[in-house]
Amino acid sequence: MEGLIDSLLIDLFLIQSPTNATDVIKTEVSVSKKKCFLHGVCTFRVRYADPRETGDRPERQPTMLHSRLLRYLDEVARSGSIRGAGEKLHIAPSAINKHLLLLEEEIGEPLFERLPRGLRPTPAGEILLAHVRRTILEYRQVEAEIRDLKTLQKGEVIIATVTGLASGIASTAAASFCAHHPHIKISIRAMSGREILDALVSGEADVGLGFNLAASPQLEILWEMDTRLGAVIAPSHALARMESIPLAYCTSYPLIFADRSMLMHGIVADTFVEAGLSVEPAFRTNSIETMKRLAAASESIAFLSKFDIAEEHRQEILTYRQIRDRVFSRNVLSLVRREKVGHGLASLLLAEEIMGVLGAMSG
Question: Class assignment of domain 230-323?
């Protein structure tokens, strides 16, 4: 079986004659068996043959990465006959049969049962076909990725995210991406979590970044992390000297709550209730930007994740402190994208930039 795999992989590299197109290349190949086939050492000795020497050798196909033999095997199995495979591939059945017999001789096992109504793969044939089809599929995926490279010369990628992340993580990643791919336009659109999902599913956005996004079979999760809420305060705040803050200490200062339209409101309000603390927030807003501005300009305390204040933390405008004695319920940050996306490679590369920023912050 090892000899078979070596033969198949060697045939991936087809040699095109630099001379007349009617020339036929004969190639002798020797393979070192000292290592597994993925790392075999191949030596090619090539000579150009007179076409008369080739007999009924199958007509040479245009140069391609993967062996004709892979396509022959796959089509014989699908068609159930050599004649049917020949008609589908526009190859003489005798040429396909010749390749098949030579391969069976090399393996030392029949690959197909010859039945009155056609051919059926043997157990050895099934093993080989699984390898062949994986190889063909992977090659098609590589072809698609190469085609996608063209999208990096132009186009637009749209990020759908919430306001707090739009001005920090998304902007940082977008700037880095554009430095490497200046011909791709980036649009950053701030919206609610529900709107992020709708935009992705409808195709109005390519990448989504948000908190507590609902699962969808149409979306692929690229990265996610539980980003617990904590106290967000100005660096000059009296509590900033503490590495973590007891929840009860927060009640001595003006509190900033998300309004009831935001999931964050329930997370924070329920935690105070469970702790037996009765509070009345000084501010309510559905804008994360407003929460951050209020916290930066006063002794007020907002309850956000450290990802919400990435840019403000970098500029030393705000700081984040964990709550010591209470744990807010889960606040999952997710990076998602559509399963089938027009600018596949561009959106994936942008997503990798975002994941790099997220990874640096969570490390």
Answer: alpha beta
Give the pLDDT score at 248: 95
What pLDDT digit, counting tens, does each position of 117-161 carry? 889 999 999 999 999 888 887 887 677 667 666 666 677 889 999
* Answer CATH for 2-149 from 3.40.50.620, 3.20.20.70, 3.30.420.40, 1.10.10.10: 1.10.10.10
Q: What is the pLDDT of residues 79-89, one digit of tens each?
A: 999 999 999 88
- For the chain, which residues make up each domain, given as ranges? 2-149, 154-220+335-362, 230-323
The highest-level CATH class for domain 154-220+335-362 is: alpha beta
CA distance 333 to 305: 10
User: Distance (Å, rounded) from C-alpha 137 to C-alpha 134?
Assistant: 5
Do domains 154-220+335-362 and 230-323 share one topology? The answer is yes
Indicate the SS3 state at residue 56: coil
Q: Where are the alpha helices (DSSP H) in the chain?
A: 2-10, 68-79, 82-89, 93-107, 123-148, 163-165, 171-180, 193-202, 247-250, 263-274, 288-297, 310-314, 344-362
DSSP category for residue 327:
-
Nearest Cα neighbor of 254 from 220, 290, 300 is 300
Enumerate residues 6+ apart whose C-beta is below 8 A from 285.
Answer: 256, 258, 259, 291, 294
Pick from 309, 295, 301, 304: which is nearest to 279 by CA? 301
